[in-house]
Design goal:
Elements: E1 2-13, H1 17-28, E2 34-37, H2 46-49, H3 81-95, E3 101-102, E4 105-113, E5 118-125, E6 130-141, E7 163-166, E8 180-184, H4 190-200, E9 203-207, E10 214-215, H5 224-232, H6 236-249, H7 252-256, H8 263-276, H9 280-286, E11 298-299, H10 303-307, E12 312-315, E13 319-323, E14 326-329, E15 334-336, E16 339-342, E17 357-358, H11 365-372, E18 388-390, H12 403-424, E19 426-431, H13 433-447, H14 451-454, H15 476-482, E20 491-495
Parallel strand pairs: 1-2, 1-6, 2-3, 4-17, 6-18, 7-16, 8-9, 8-16, 9-12, 10-11
Antiparallel strand pairs: 4-5, 5-6, 13-14, 14-15, 19-20
Amino acid sequence: MTSRITEVDHLIIGAGFAGLCAAIKLDEAGETDFVVIEKDSDVGGTWHINTYPGAECDVPSQLYSYSFALNPDWSKVYSPQREIWEYTKGVAEKAGILDRVVLETAVHNSVWDEATRRWIVTTGSVDGRTKRTYAAKTLISGSGGLSEPSLPDIKGIDSFAGDTFHSARWNHDVDLAGKRIAVIGTGASAIQLVPELQKIAGRVDVYQRTPNWIIPRNERAFSRLEKLAFRHVPGVQRAVRAGVYATLEGRVPAFAKFPALLKLVELQGKQNIAKAIKDPELRAAVTPDYRAGCKRILVSNKWYPAIASDNVDLVTSGIAEIRPNSIVDKDGVEREIDVLVIATGFHVTDQPIAGHITGKGGRTLAEVWGEKGMRAYKGTTIHGFPNLFQIVGPNTALGHSSIIFIIESQVRYIVDAARTLRREGLAAVEPTLEAQDAWNDEVQRRMQPTVWVTGGCASWYVDEFGNNTTLWPGQTFTFRNHLSRFDLDKYVGTPA
């Protein structure tokens, strides 16, 4: 095992959309001394890892891309996983930043050193052969909320003798043809993978805890003429993108201020059910009893036809235990299976990276957030953690639009912070507790009338303290306006 100490201006954790955007924009700003640490074997983040059958984006392709790197070659309105991954890698290659990406390397610990005013970051290669320590002026976390799978706490789950894998860690070596497959979960991943499994499996048992509102997916392929126009006619693709953006932003008042308007979405959802499912008992089982939008609204034309198929059984009674070759539900019914697929989402309100970041006073971010939940100033900087910048931090995720818009907004703020540090001769900046508290109090005040609070459901948006620390309760352009410049007056600056 080797150990080296490397000094860098900026250390970026994660090479997904967030980390790559930070690297590209820092590079363009002349902040070229950075390294990106990525635990997986290639760049792309969630779009490199999630390779389950049917994996696609549920945000229109035109908006699910960087504003500075539009893609005229999307195959259809909602892009498949492979296309998105190839897009992110292509953008990174063209930007010339891949030489500063270190793959198959995990961040073990990041400690703020008050004496040197640097983040001391210990990393290790996945194979365990190489250990490297960095001393970084700034630490930029782009690890994301969809990076670490969340596993269900079910009696006997470790005793299952067949093949088991999470949707985000798909095992393509397992032959699923004709197999008896159990899928735990009915969220965004499950509604994409179950229709694909249904085509080849002998039987699929789907274990549903709570049904979701699922509206039709207005899917279609882009024509050759459209692609030619996107590529060769100035302004066409940007205009289409602007139209998609405006359409999605138009939904915000219903989510944030007037949840009753979401009855229109519920009508779409019920029509989607009625079109595919004739059995009244199954219809009732998949119809939510809470307001649309309280949980993430999903889009699919394939989910309801799949679960109405003869070889699919929807189980809503809950799981009592898992045995070596079967699952027993809470009604006592035992179903034998060959393969167990877990589609229960990710650690979102308890991000694992927080346990690997230690700020002032020797406290980890996980310990600090464990007291009141995730809190940050403008979702980006955190009191007690100088020069730490988190992309897609608390209250920055969206229930209506593309997270790429938020990422770019935060990266602009971070790049301006880097410029400010250099211009003002500062070694470190840290948001004041007053600024952070005022920001979070206002966000939670604005959260109260939203459907995420009043909609009558329990969702992964809400933490153990009952606060929605996941979503931004407003339009994305208001968020961007808040982060239009680095506001040094809300920070304590330490001279170099």
